[in-house]
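Deliverable D2.4 — example input (structure tokens):
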């Protein structure tokens, strides 16, 4: 969209967006299922602002709308609980402000950098989901791999 008369165009940055898994395995041997995570509803869109390379990207810092309040929150979460990583332009002043306040440098000016990391995170998340539990899936199973 073009800015109208007297309006300044919104600042744009590239972030990695992902969705929270609808159902995740939980409990003894992963035999229980829970919807979403403690902080986010299943299917919620979140923005990844930091990855922890020292841990093999198993943990990410995310910004998204909280399950209980609906307002934006910033939390660390397991990579295996996210899917469909993609690079997206972000114009939301709140998301950009929270990203800047975190001081982690998760906002990219170039689309290619964000797309490269998003592709890598998608592969890693799938591997973490399949490798986290040593037990077979419960029957019936509604986890991300089984749906």
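Example output (designed residues):
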């Amino acid at each position: 969209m073009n800015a109208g008369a007297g309006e300044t165009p919104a600042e744009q940055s590239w972030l990695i967006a992902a969705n929270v898994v609808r159902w995740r395995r939980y409990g003894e041997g992963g035999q229980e299922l829970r919807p979403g995570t403690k902080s986010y509803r299943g299917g919620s869109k979140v923005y990844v602002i930091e990855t922890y390379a020292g841990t093999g990207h198993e943990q990410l810092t995310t910004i998204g709308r909280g399950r209980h309040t609906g307002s934006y929150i910033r939390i660390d979460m397991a990579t295996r609980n996210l899917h469909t990583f993609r690079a997206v332009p972000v114009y939301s002043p709140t998301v950009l402000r929270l990203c800047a306040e975190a001081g982690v440098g998760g906002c990219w000016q170039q689309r290619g950098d964000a797309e490269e990391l998003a592709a890598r995170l998608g592969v890693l998340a799938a591997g973490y989901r399949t490798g986290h539990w040593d037990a077979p899936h419960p029957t019936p199973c509604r986890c991300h791999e089984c749906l």
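The longest helix spans residues 111-132.
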